[in-house]
Write a sequence for this structure.
């Protein structure tokens, strides 16, 4: 059967099952689903389904499986490694209409949500009950919980609270043959059989489509205070992080920005960020159950940090706190504004290795005359490395990117780390998985893929 005929049959079958408006072939609309937030990557799907229920998802998968047609699950499309991009066409299965918070169970401190609930909306909703959903990717106002689960997303609070994987208690998901499965549920402990949930977290839409998520909540801390501390060097900043943690102070975030990041944000926002001449900033958040507890921790922290007290900004009100987080949250936009094409990597190393990793990396990038902007999560060793294309010739850039990836990943691995801490492998990193995993491990992953998806219809060309 020709591809055209196949697409027509799939369109007709799905329209019959799901209804007219759910299945789309209008190219203007398809265009909106051709990319995510990955720099310089675009490819049109042949069809789009906007699923409104688990039944819609199941029917879509059944039909596509029958025709061996690629299905690309999509949450909010904020991924940065091309996970939701239909790189070889196929059907984009958008979960955008499945965006309800089904239940906030206060007694069990569990939220049950549909996959496309925006992470920040869930955080605000549970706050009303004095509860907290801690994972906080910087994209929390635009990304979905389903996408967070599929990517194993993290955020600044990982140092104290962990990442998405630490909060998923149960999943409902649909296998490529259309069968609907639930693993786990409203219970905290579970040693029943294989930990399927763990396999699905970070599976990047290649194993199943997640349609319902049970999330652990915790009591919200009553007081939160942020501190912004300037340093004369990255080394000093990172040494301070080790000292803070050795002193048994566990902040909820310890973010660092090197001077390139501070300067680019200042230029973009057209306003002077605090301590513009510092070589590095640490942005530290302390939370706890009372003002007294938090101030006691801050006193200990200030004694640990070798910076004069009057050089530390302590932000207690929401307005003050927003001001110092504005710079951190504006880095990606600032980079995009300076250079629409850029390489964004999120390697992770043991946190004690950040200074030597960055020193070696910076030396290499400087020797190649490249502009790099580096920031990240000092508390958990996850470093965001951005290299700007600027006005470099396209051919030169395209030849350079694979070389740069090899340099960055090679250095991360030689410092005891790995190639990605939170953004996943997706499409843009699939050729480099072999740097971080042995052949045996990759083979095991491939066998897991075949067990879930024997016809390889789900998100082909991703991860492997
Ligand atoms: C400005 C900015 C800041 C960011 N900051 C962070 C950060 O701090 N930490 C971090 O971890 N990430 C960050 N990201 C990356 C991105 O937001 C995350 O990867 C997020 O988890 C993606 O969610 P999404 O809903 O947009 O997923 P999408 O981009 O739609 O999809 C991502 C992947 O998940 C799969 N998928 C989505 N939904 C489902 C589902 N229901 N079932 C099965 N598979 C599914 C897709 O197939 C794809 O492979 C940032 C991105 C931007 C643009």
């Amino acid at each position: 059967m020709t591809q055209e005929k196949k697409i027509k049959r799939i369109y007709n079958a799905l329209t019959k099952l799901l209804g007219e408006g759910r299945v789309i072939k209008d190219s203007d609309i398809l265009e909106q689903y051709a990319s995510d937030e990955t720099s310089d990557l675009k490819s049109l799907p042949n069809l789009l389904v906007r699923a409104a229920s688990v039944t819609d998802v199941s029917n879509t998968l059944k039909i596509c499986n029958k025709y061996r047609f690629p299905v690309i699950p999509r949450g909010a499309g904020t991924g940065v490694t091309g996970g939701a991009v239909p790189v070889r066409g196929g059907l984009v299965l958008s979960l955008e209409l499945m965006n309800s918070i089904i239940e906030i169970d206060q007694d069990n401190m569990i939220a049950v949500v549909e996959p496309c609930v925006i992470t920040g909306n869930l955080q605000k909703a549970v706050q009303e009950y004095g509860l907290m959903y801690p994972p906080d990717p910087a994209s929390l106002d635009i990304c979905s919980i389903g996408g967070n689960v599929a990517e194993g997303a993290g955020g600044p609070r990982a140092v104290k609270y962990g990442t998405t994987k630490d909060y998923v208690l149960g999943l409902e998901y649909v296998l490529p043959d259309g069968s609907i499965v639930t693993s786990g549920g409203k219970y905290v402990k579970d040693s029943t059989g294989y930990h399927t949930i763990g396999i699905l977290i970070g599976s990047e839409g290649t194993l199943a489509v997640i349609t319902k998520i049970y999330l652990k909540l915790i009591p919200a801390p009553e007081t939160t205070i942020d501190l912004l501390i300037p340093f004369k060097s990255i080394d000093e900043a990172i040494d301070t992080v080790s000292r803070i943690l050795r002193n048994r102070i566990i902040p909820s975030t310890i973010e660092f920005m090197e001077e390139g990041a501070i300067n680019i944000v200042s230029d973009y926002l057209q306003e002077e960020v605090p301590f513009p001449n510092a070589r590095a900033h640490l942005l530290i958040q302390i939370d706890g159950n009372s003002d007294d507890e938090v101030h006691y921790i801050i006193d200990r922290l200030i004694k640990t940090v070798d910076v004069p007290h009057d050089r530390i900004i302590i932000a207690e009100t929401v307005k003050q706190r927003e001001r110092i987080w504005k710079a951190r949250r504006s880095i990606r936009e600032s980079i995009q504004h300076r250079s629409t094409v850029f390489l964004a990597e999120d390697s992770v190393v043991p946190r004690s290795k950040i200074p030597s990793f960055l020193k070696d990396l910076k030396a290499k990038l400087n020797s190649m005359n490249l502009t790099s902007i580096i920031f990240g999560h000092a508390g958990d060793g996850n470093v965001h490395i951005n290299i700007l294309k600027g006005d470099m010739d396209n051919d030169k850039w395209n030849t350079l990117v694979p070389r740069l990836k090899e340099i960055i990943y090679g250095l991360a691995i030689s410092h005891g780390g790995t190639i990605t801490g939170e953004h996943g492998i997706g499409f843009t990193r699939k050729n480099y998985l072999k740097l971080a995993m042995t052949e045996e491990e990759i083979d095991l992953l491939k066998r897991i893929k075949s067990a879930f998806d024997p016809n390889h219809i789900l998100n082909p060309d991703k991860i492997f």
